[in-house]
Amino acid sequence: MGKRVPPNARQAVVVYGDDADSAESTVVLYEKQGAVWKREGSWPAHNGRLGWTTDHRMDDERSPVGVFSLTDAGGSLDDPGSRLRYWYDDNAFASMIEDGDEHVHDFDYVIAIDYNRLKGVAPFDWSRPDGVEKGGGIWLHLDHGDGTSACVTVPESGMKTLLRALDPRRHPVVVMGDRKRLSA
Question: Is there a contact between 7 and 134 (Cβ–Cβ < 8 Å)?
Fold first, then answer.
């Protein structure tokens, strides 16, 4: 995790909430063209039920604040044209949903946020290099209308746009947190 966007990053997904305890946020896709960051799209979103934290822990229901790379994607639906490596696995994602769960489609499309995870592996790989207590399995995924355990949710149209736009050759990152911490 970093506090600054790396110099080689040419795409940034910025996720910001109005305050530290808010589960509501906005996702904005930016692409760097020359020295200028150009806004390419934005969507309403949700983050951790209890807001944001600079010290994320397993099950704290807060999304981690910081700058993280985006390297891997997947889902329980076929690849919609992702430029990131895409893992289709209906069974891996289905195993996270209980029968009759209203969140059955949350993982149709996901983009793994490289927080306490190995890069270059499927999003549903549960390896945690910094230990299980630091949490992990934090993704951008389909919105279900309210806060999450720590993920960031985006409407389906936004997820498809992000999957098709994010290009590993442009070193995409996600910059996430509440407005106050992001402006510090």
Answer: no
